Amino acid sequence: MQEYTENQTKETRMEDVDFYEKEHIQKAPGLQVVCFRISQEWYAAEIGKIIEVIPASQLTPLPSAPPYIVGITNLRGEVISVTDPKVLFNLERVEQTAKTRIVVVSSQKVETGLLVDEVTQVRDVEQEQIDPPLSTLSGEKTFYLKGEFLFKGQLITILDIEHIIQKTRFRQEEN
């Protein structure tokens, strides 16, 4: 744009305006999540925390484990525990089906699996679409949640993988 001296008027003429010169608006980065069903509710986890999704048929029961640890699985030679979020969230248990999966998640080199009833899709979620967890939820449950968003009228809750791993890791160190 043209600089004006004291003697010139600050009248803007069309030929002086650079229509391509725009302020760059800093947009909050979006979040890419994997969506899945646990019981009759829909949840998601950040894709950066997910290592892979495997069939639940590879699950071996673990005697004397806390109730939310439903077993262990072998992931390329490494044994990892599998957490059932239904127990953490006091949800109705449903029978495993062909769609049941273990979503293997990681945080700070600690891995665990989450037993889910169905993995459906990967979604991009804009930061402004994410709301905090509902205030009507119990304190214990909100510890495991990051936020919620609506997709086609369906409420999807984003899990806080860090806190879930912290819970399972803390309990394993107690035993």
| Count of extended strands | 10
Q: Give the strand content.
A: 35-45%
Q: N-to-C SSE series?
A: EEEEEHEEEHEEH
Q: Structural class, please?
A: mainly beta
From the spread of the alpha carbons, the general shape counts as globular
| Helical proportion, percent range | 10-25%
* Count of domain modules: 1
Instruction: Provide the spatial order of strands within the biggest beta sheet.
Output: 8-1-2-10-9
Write down the CATH class.
Answer: Mainly Beta
Describe the protein.
By secondary structure, the protein is mainly β. The protein has a single domain, classed as Beta Barrel (OB fold (Dihydrolipoamide Acetyltransferase, E2P)). The protein has 3 helices and 10 strands, in the order E-E-E-E-E-H-E-E-E-H-E-E-H. The protein has helices at 85-88, 139-142, 161-174, and strands at residues 31-38, 41-46, 50-55, 69-75, 78-83, 101-107, 110-116, 118-125, 145-151, 154-159. A 5-stranded mixed β-sheet has the order 8-1-2-10-9. It is globular, with a radius of gyration of 24 Å. 25% of the residues are buried. The model is unreliable at 6-10 and 170-175 (pLDDT under 50).
